[in-house]
Amino acid sequence: MTTPEARAEEHRQLRWMRAVSLLEGSTLLALVLVAVPLKHLAGVPMATRIMGPIHGLAFLLYVWMLARTVCAGGWPRSEMIRLVAAAFIPFGAFINERRLARRQAVLAACD
Predict the structure, then answer these.
(1) pTM of the entire structure?
(2) DSSP code of residue 87
(3) More confident residue, 86 or 31
(4) How far apart are the first and last CA of the chain?
(5) What angle do CA 19, 63, 48 make, to 5 degrees?
(6) Calpha distance 82→40 (Å, rounded)
């Protein structure tokens, strides 16, 4: 049985992971749906020069948060693999956020 403090910490970690997942997914969409078309269709290469590094930082933040969340323990191997795979699949971050929300709801129900 986990302690209330451990559940509170996991709840906080899940909240951050959900936010970072949405950030990473949103920056990927902005890059692919806005910046790349601007570069190739409108001749504005500055769009990808700006959005590319922003998405790169968001991705690195996602990986860092993923490592912190998984290292906290209590996650099955299949869940860890799914979290990592979601970072490389378009729209995976949004699917991931919904799964994290469900886990957070289950955790909150235990309180």
Answers:
(1) 0.85
(2) T
(3) 31
(4) 12
(5) 80
(6) 33
Please determine, for residue 111, whether its predicted confidence score (pLDDT) is greater than 80.
no
The residue type found at 1 is: M
The span from the CA of 87 to the CA of 70, in Å, is 14
CA 79, CA 54: separation in Å to the nearest integer? 27
Q: Are 14 and 103 in contact (CB under 8 A)?
A: yes
| Whole-angstrom Cα Rg for the chain | 16
The label of the residue with tokens 């729209």 reads 91
Q: CA–CA separation, 57 vs 52, rounded Å? A: 9
For residue range 48-93, what is the model confidence (pLDDT) as tens digits? Answer: 999 999 999 999 999 898 888 878 777 778 888 888 888 888 788 8
Classify residue 74 by its DSSP letter: -
CA distance 75 to 47: 38
| Contact in structure between 70 and 80 (CB atoms under 8 Å) | yes
